[in-house]
Task: structure prediction
Amino acid sequence: MISSLPDAVEALISELTRLPGIGRKTAQRLAFHLLKSRSEAPRRLAEVLERVARDVTFCPRCNNLSEQGELCTICSAPRRSSETVCVVETPTDVLAIERTGRFNGTYHVLGGSINPLEGVGPEDLALDALFARILEGGVIELILANSATLEGDTTAMFIARQVKGQDIKVTRLARGIPMGGDLEFADEHTISRAIQARTDFEG
Result:
């Protein structure tokens, strides 16, 4: 079927549908909103997207989002304790824990979890960088905040076995996080309780 929309608008809608949770109708509404505003909104959005593509990268220490070549805001904060490292899967998990205001350590973002069915192995995650941080010394506790899924459990057990025998305490968030749930969808009170009630963990 031939579209009645200009090619540029169709291209915009097509790109918007690539975003998670955005279907064709939602993409159309967003595109028409930008066009209808007839203001600087589309130009500002384009400039911000260009800046993100150009400047945003990953923290060389913890793999969280950061400005190009710089430590992230958490790793560079002088009042954060580097003795406690919370291992999470994604930057959105960092945001979820930070909302609680109950954690003052640092993070390590793996970039996912071990999932053989999807071809994701330990070498595909930021695990080498995590183990290098531990070998550097100074880490007293490792909090495994992997999602409460089979893949999250597999990843947590892999990490625990790799650091076993080292002088480091390994804990896991308490099961206030429901089985099958992701951190980014949990409320701050649930995450806060899970952090406070974390337990020793052995893979």
Observations:
- Residues 41-55 form the longest helix (15 residues).
- The CA atoms of residues 54 and 68 lie 8 Å apart.
- Helices lie at 7-16, 24-37, 41-55, 91-98, 127-136, 150-163, 188-196.
